[in-house]
Specification:
single chain; alpha/beta; eight-stranded parallel β-sheet; two-stranded antiparallel ribbon; 9 helices
């Protein structure tokens, strides 16, 4: 939770936060009440999409059904703490081991039942890198080539018939694999998280311009797939390599650092296929909730009202079928 001393840009602009978490561990706590307070601290957050973070799993019963506990927990929050027009956690994205193939069908159905109409899709982290420095910042390390795996694709095939989306979180060298997946399943909606995660640590620091070109080329390849959307955000994570740790309250400094990434994402995908996200509380490592949204608004300050409505509200409402 942060103070509301900072000037809020465009305070009336309606925002659906397309990507946030709730965390309750011994090391860190970010509850729905803390998130709700951040959302009432100046920016007009009218709805949100909860993204899985492997929290509140069942501890009993079949192990393959344990992730459903997270969906049940978030769905249970909805009616008791969300008054008036604020519809936080209106959409829920859960977790499932898609590489389990046809067996994933029962997990998806259980998620949908537990979600009480608010379960919208799956996120399965597929991020892999040969550089160990990356895993100083990311704790989950699946095997390489997961999106090309036949069993993964078998499990993936169960999403579209249920009207479910796939949130893809990966690193920029894997963007070509995502493009292949998207082309193989053109009717499945894929939402690329965090603008394709251009890495900025370890060996990726040796030639930053080359890394930027590789990331842009990969993002352009994915943008050619009309079934892929992209989330603009997640730039507060240290794995990007932005030198902004001491600039948390300075949205102009953040905007200056983030602008090339954000403008490239919007340029390649267009205003109809971009969603804005806070990635809170993870992005709190290098920014604050208010500074984050101010930086995004500053970068888009010259966009038309129609473009802003799509970027901040309309696209998330449509893609995640929130009905707001």
């Amino acid at each position: 939770m942060e103070s509301n001393q900072q000037t809020i840009l465009e305070p009336d602009l309606a925002i659906i936060d397309a990507h946030h978490h709730l965390i309750d561990t011994d090391r860190h706590s970010y509850t729905i009440e803390k998130y709700k307070q951040d959302c009432m601290n100046g920016h007009n957050i009218v709805g949100s999409v909860y993204i899985e973070v492997r929290e509140k799993y069942y501890t009993e019963g079949p192990k393959w059904l344990h992730p459903v506990g997270e969906t049940e927990f978030v769905a249970g929050l909805y009616d008791s703490i969300l008054p008036n027009e604020q519809r936080l956690c209106q959409g829920i994205i859960g977790y499932a081991d898609l590489e389990s193939g046809n067996e994933v069908a029962d997990v998806l159905d259980a998620h949908m039942e537990a979600g009480k109409g608010r379960f919208k899709g799956i996120r399965r982290g597929v991020y892999w890198s040969s550089d160990p420095a990356v895993y100083d910042h990311v704790s989950i390390r699946p095997r390489s080539g997961l999106m090309l795996d036949p069993e993964f694709r078998c499990g993936f095939s169960h999403l579209q018939p249920r009207g479910l989306t796939f949130d893809a979180v990966l690193f920029h060298p894997q963007l070509n694999e995502l493009a292949d997946l998207a082309e193989s399943f053109p009717d499945t909606i894929i939402i690329l998280n965090h603008v394709g995660f251009k890495l900025g640590v370890g060996g990726y620091l040796n030639d930053k311009e080359q890394v930027f070109r590789e990331w842009r080329d990969g993002l352009k390849l994915v943008a050619h797939c009309p079934n892929v959307m992209v989330k603009i955000g997640g730039l507060g994570m240290k794995v990007w390599g932005f030198d902004v740790e001491n600039k948390k309250e300075d949205y102009l400094e953040l905007a200056g650092a983030w602008r090339p990434v954000i403008e490239t994402g919007i340029e390649l995908f267009g205003a109809d296929r971009c969603l804005f996200e806070s990635n809170y509380p993870v992005d709190g490592a290098t920014t604050t909730f208010n500074s984050l949204w101010n930086a995004l608004k500053f970068i888009t300050r010259n966009y038309s009202d129609d473009e802003k409505r799509k970027l901040y509200f309309g696209n998330a409402n449509r893609v995640y079928r929130l009905g707001l």
